[in-house]
Specification:
Length: 252
């Protein structure tokens, strides 16, 4: 078999973009059938606290890319296998540039939001800064301002709040591309042996380090244009279809 591993995004790919979403029965069954054939893992912008429940439901045991590409973790234990952090002074500048806009901040280990009026300074490095629930009209303005922060990259992602977007901000060397390159080394894999599946802008770097690039049917048009194959949307089990087609070779 050409493909030895499949790595996929969570929100909009394995599950609906909702806070408490769970994998479908079909996806769980498909993953169970494929688990002994290939390495299955995820690459998500979610924090580990928000991702682990879903990973455990799916029975994922191999190292996963979390926090937008800034950490590789053991999904069962949370052990950090690789990470790349934003310096404290960069975190402070991100906050100072964004806090004038209505939004919430989450940092690497936060499970609750830090409102902008509660943020003074951050005195420690962070793997990721989440700027969440931004009204769409403010997103391009904030992206432009964040260009002032050297050494970081910001990706626009879908929000759990309708009519809003989120920003995931990491070290410039901690995108899903960089993390996947480290992940390949950890698992002794070659790029051409990996299928990557995603749905949004922060999955473009993931595509750059994968052999077969698959976009969900509900993906952004930009991601679809870079894909080798466009599968069904998340509501119609597009990820399960990919596993069946390329791993189990049972798809219709």
């Amino acid at each position: 078999m050409q493909y030895k591993a499949l790595i996929f995004d969570l929100d909009g790919t394995a599950i609906d973009t909702k806070q408490n979403a769970s994998p479908s029965k079909r996806l769980l069954e498909t993953i169970a059938h494929a688990n002994d054939k290939v390495i299955l893992a995820c690459a998500t912008g979610r924090s580990f606290g928000n991702a682990q429940r879903v990973l455990l439901e799916m029975g994922i045991t191999h190292p996963c890319i979390i926090f937008g590409g800034s950490q590789i973790l053991n999904p069962q234990t949370g052990e950090v296998l690789w990470k790349k952090e934003i310096a404290a002074k960069q975190v402070n500048k991100i906050v100072s540039l964004c806090k004038e806009y209505p939004c919430d901040f989450y940092f690497t280990d936060d499970m609750e939001p830090t409102h902008y009026h509660e943020v003074a300074t951050r005195i420690k490095p962070e793997s990721i800064v989440y700027v969440k629930d931004i009204k769409i009209q403010y997103v391009p303005i904030m992206l432009k301002k964040l260009e002032q922060v050297s050494g970081v990259v910001a990706y626009v992602t879908n929000s759990w709040v309708e009519g809003c977007k989120d920003l995931h901000i990491t070290h410039v060397d901690a995108t899903k591309k960089n993390a996947l390159q480290q992940w390949l080394k950890l698992l002794n894999l070659k790029k051409e042996n990996v299928i990557a599946v995603g749905d949004s802008g922060n999955d473009i770097p993931l595509f750059e380090s994968a052999g077969l690039k698959v976009a969900m049917g509900n993906s952004t048009e930009d991601l679809k244009s870079k894909a080798d194959f466009v599968t069904k949307n998340v509501e119609n089990d597009g990820l399960a279809y990919v596993i069946e087609k390329y791993i189990l070779q049972e798809s219709d």
